[in-house]
Structures are given as structure tokens and as C-alpha cells.
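Narrative progress, year one. The postdoctoral researcher (J.K.) led the effort to move from monomer predictions toward full complexes, under supervision of the PI. The following entry was the first complex the group processed end to end, covering 288 residues in total.
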Amino acid sequence: MPEFMETTVDKFTFKVATDRYYSEQGIWALRTGKVIRIGLSDYLQQRSGDIAFADVQPAGTQLEAGGDVAEIETIKVDTTIASPVSGSIVTVNPKMELEPEVINQDPYGEGWLCEIEPMNWEADLEKLLEPKAYFIVMKKEAEEEAKNL
Amino acid sequence: MTGPKKVLIVPCSGIGKSYGTVSREAAYQVVEDDRPGQTRIVPLALLVMDDEETRQLLKENQAITIDGCKLACATKMVAESGGEVAKDFAVLDVFRRNRDFKPSGIAELNEGGKKLADALAKEIDTEVDNLIRKGGQDA
């Protein structure tokens, strides 16, 4: 179980897992053995709303860092998810097809999108944010959004 | 309150959100157009206000709830008010079965939203018919 930093903005509480890296979009990347598992941050999944569909690129797809890895569709928005790492998709979470709501229920655990065999992890890592840095970015974004409510 | 039993339709009261509007439009269609006389709409606000007459209605009739989001306020409020939820519908689940009908708009739904409300209403119609066939309600 990862540890979390959390903040409450307006009536919403957002958690950031401290054991992984993040893109500014709010996509996390966690190294597990030889692959990088990716998924949505708690803030991104809450901001997106209840997820109706998660279309992840199939296993074998070659990705550039920043390339489209998935489309998330909620009643509110359609969001294109950019891969935080370059490489090849080796596994797509089978729950994405029939139970995409698991992203909302457990964004840092069972709600992962896919696993990627990295092509250049060290270089990709330089462009990602450490948890504390992402926490600051996320909190600022959440506070800005709350002002517009 | 006495009179013939009806199936109560309790929609989400979410204001300012498309899925709340979808749930209410579907409820109106069932109660006013598809199954008038067999159904009655119950505003969620009356349950929140603990309205005695509405609580009594819930004790005497089965309810179908329509939830706009995972908070499931309609289902929770009926249960907390002592009512029996015969069937609960979630707009999101109906959207998953009808991906082409993507709703937007609040005061007025777009075409996708209207079609989604219609699809939801038809699912509710079927459930109303099932409840009446089981003999629990007098049409």
C-alpha cells in the first residue's frame, strides 16, 4: 500500500501516492520490475467524473512519451491520455474493458491502465514530476478550478 | 394517502448536470407519456425534507430510483425514508449500453441526451410492467 499526501479543496479531497512519478497532466508512472505501470491520479479521475469507457491502445503498440495511450470517456468529458513514458505496451488492464469504473474506485491500485516496457526510462524520468512537485501543481490547479465553480 | 397503488419513480435531483437532467426527463416520460396512471413521480427534495405524506407513499408503494451519479442520492434517500427500492437505475450504466447517446446541455438536452433519456425511460417502462405483472401494484 502506498503512502499518500492529501489536500482538501472546496469539498473535495485529493490524494497523491508518494511511490511514483507524475506527468503534469496527472498520469502516474510506477516502475514494477521491468515494466512501467501507468494510470490516472486521484485528482484527474475526480475532475473527469464517473468513467464510462476507457479505450486503451492494444498490447504491442509502440508509444512515444507524450503520445496517445488511451481515451477516457465520461458523461462530462472525453480525455486523451498521454503516455508519460516511451516504449511498448505489454499488458492492458483487463478491467478497462468491462469495469472502467475501477479507475474512479482505486486510481492508484486496481485502476491502472496498462504496463509499458520502457524504451528510455531514464530520459523519460527527467521530464516527470516527483510526488511533492506534482502535489503542488495539482493543488494549484484544483484551487484555480474551485474559484471558477 | 389512499387510492390505487402506483410504482413511484424517484429521479436524481442533480441541478446543473446533464445526467441529472437525463434522469428527470426519463422520469417525466414514464410518468406522463409511457405509463400514466401506473406511475407517480416523487421529487427527491420531499424526501430530504422528510415530508410525512411522501414517506407514507413510500411505505405503501414500490419505488424505482434513477441515480445520476455514483453518490446514488435517490436510492439512498428512499432507503433512509423507509421505502422499498424495487429497482435502481444509474444513468451511467444506461450510457454504457448506449454509447452513441452522449448527453450534454442542462436546461435543454442535446439530441444524444434526449435519446439517452428515451432509452432509460424504456428500460424503466419494462421494469414498471414487471412490477405490475407480479401483482404488487394495481394499474
